[in-house]
Amino acid sequence: MKERKILANAYVLSRFSKMSDYTSIVGVYPTMELAEQAKVRQDDLWHDAIHTIDATVLHGADKLDLRLR
Asked: Which of 15, 60, 64, 69 gets the most CB atoms within 10 Å of its CB?
């Protein structure tokens, strides 16, 4: 059986803190709509930050393992 790689679109929401010049990933979403909804919530919570959404493609998405620390 031939191994298949699963591709998936992903939208990464990042936060850049204006006060500390620190960038972090807030979340990864399967649709732009969900990422935009999360961005609105983050903008309300973090007034001193810039939130951006970057589109990407995940290669081998079936092996993806995201964990919160």
From this structure: 15
